[in-house]
Every structure is written in C-alpha cells, then in structure tokens.
Sequence to fold (73 residues):
Amino acid sequence: MKIDWAALGSVFGVSLVVTVALVGLFTLGITALSHRERAVAQGRSTALPVTGAYACFAACTAAVGYGIYLIMA
Fold:
C-alpha cells in the first residue's frame, strides 16, 4: 500500500481552511445578532444587522449543503 502524501496534505489543507472560514462566517452572524440587540436597546433600526446575520447563516447552510452534496454524489 502506497500513501499519496501530497494528496493527503492537500485534503487536510483545504479542510482546515474551509473549517476556519465556516466558523468565522458563523461567528460574524452571531456578532450581527448581538448588534441587533444593541440597536433595539438604543432605539435604532435593526434591518442591517439582521440582514447581515441571515446572509452569514445562509452562506453557512449553503456550504454545509454543498459538502453533503459532494459526499453523496
């Protein structure tokens, strides 16, 4: 049995980058929701933080869905 170390390293690198990106994107969504809470407390508009949070969560959902699609295909 021969292990292709270059392919293994490539898969590891891509997995690491995608994982960090998804966690960062989800964190941005949570942060946007916390800005919404502050805006409500100060009597400002909440449209932009909510839209940003939903966009972040939608992108996370799309990335996870695409990953599941790649596994199932």
Notes: The two ends are 26 Å apart (CA to CA). The helical segments are 5-42, 47-72. The CA atoms of residues 5 and 18 lie 20 Å apart.
